Amino acid sequence: MKNPKSAAFTLIELLVVVLIIGILAAVAVPQYQKAVEKSRAVEAMTLLEALGKAQTLYYLSNGVYSNDMSALDIQLPGVGSGFTKEIQTKNFKIQLSSSDGGNSFFAMATRITGSGALATGDLAYELGIMSNGKGQLNRICYEQGAGICKSLTGNRQCFDSDKDVDGWCYKD
User: Which domains are delineated in the chain?
Assistant: First the structure.
């Protein structure tokens, strides 16, 4: 006959299993959240890249950069036929401005929350793309120390003297 006490798990064994699952979850959840945020940022980077290319085409055709998204040859979410300087996606507010008499432009994607408020804490970062006056586009990620920009740019830091950066860089 079998001993009935050896057929079940002890309370200690169950607590050890729960502890191991808790430790694994504590490690996995932040990494998952970081990966989700990185994919959201890549969405904004893609929109800004498309906006930058459309601005380049507009500049080649008209000799100036536009400060109106509806004038560009691009389909962006929330852009109709009227004058549009700002759009809002689910995760970002994207603003466009031209300066220097249309000889330069700057587009900024600011991280927002689901309610449309500016993001805070680890989610507080901005992505920007601008003309550098030499027919090239500079791409910058600004952050408040969350580490998302470093992760997105491959830890490539921008310097004020670094005006001809090819690819994305970050500034704290």
Answer: 11-171 (3.30.700.10)
Burial class (CB in 10 A: 0-12, 13-18, 19+), 149: buried
Q: What is the pLDDT of residues 6-52, one digit of tens each?
A: 678 899 999 999 999 999 999 888 888 888 888 888 888 888 989 98
* Alpha carbon separation from 113 to 20, 25, 78, 82 (Å, rounded): 33, 25, 17, 26
Assigned token pair, 26: 């504590």
Per the CB < 8 A criterion, the answer to whether 152 and 45 are in contact is: yes
Q: Using a cut of 0.85, tell me whether the model's pTM lies above it.
A: no
- Provide the token pair at 6: 């050896």
User: Cβ distance 90 to 114 under 8 Å?
Assistant: yes
